[in-house]
Amino acid sequence: MPTSREVVNHMMENDLFSQWLGIEVLDVKDGYSKIKMTVRREMINGFGIVHGGIAFSLSDSAFAFACNNRNVLSVALDTSINFTKPVHVGDVLVAEANELHNGRSTGLYHITIKNQNDHVVALFKGTCYRTNKSLI
Predict the structure, then answer these.
(1) For the segment 79-122, what is each residue's pLDDT rounded down to a tens digit?
(2) Helix (H/G/I), strand (E/B), else coil: 136
(3) Which domain range does residue 77 map to?
(4) Where are the alpha helices (DSSP H) in 4-78?
(5) Would you put residue 6 in left (φ > 0), alpha (ψ -120 to 50) or beta?
(6) Which of 93, 104, 108, 126 is the most exposed place for a label (fewest CB within 10 A)?
């Protein structure tokens, strides 16, 4: 059986969007992931702050790595995000995904996104559906 890290490494090899975001995987264990990225200029919106989709996408990747790392293919069933502070070009964002529930057919995860000043910039909640397929 592959380790959590091997599963996430396999996912990252095929995840071109997470690669484009510049995501670095910091830590992985069963039901948990911690990742980071640096915000780039092309990620700003028309208001001069970073597009909310960037924090959402970072959170979604942390969610995916946490809910799939036991090598059970899991897909998003429901997600939501709350933005608490604006994000700016040059910010280094860290998303930490924690498992709240690991069921046979669903899982529930809470992801906290902080900037380089340790300020919470967004909170994400995700529910996944577990299939009967393996990733590796």
Answers:
(1) 999 999 999 999 999 999 999 999 999 999 999 999 999 999 99
(2) coil
(3) 4-130
(4) 4-14, 16-21, 52-68
(5) alpha
(6) 104
Q: Structurally, how many domains does the chain consist of?
A: 1
In a domain, 136, yes or no: no
Sheet holding 74-83, edge to edge: 24-29, 32-38, 92-102, 106-114, 120-130, 74-83
Both tokens of residue 61?
């990747």
Residue 123 lies in a domain: yes
**Contact indicator for 94, 35 with CB cutoff of 8 Å:** yes
Structure tokens at 24: 């670095």
Residues 6+ apart with CB under 8 A from 91: 38, 39, 50, 115, 116, 121
Per the document, the length of the chain is: 136
pTM: predicted TM-score of the whole model, two decimal places? 0.97
List the CATH number of the domain containing 44.
3.10.129.10
The amino acid at 25? V
Using CA atoms, how far apart are residues 36 and 85, in angstroms rounded to an integer?
Answer: 17
List, in sequence order, every residue forming a beta bridge with 106; answer none if it has no partner. Answer: 129
Q: What is the DSSP letter of 41?
A: G
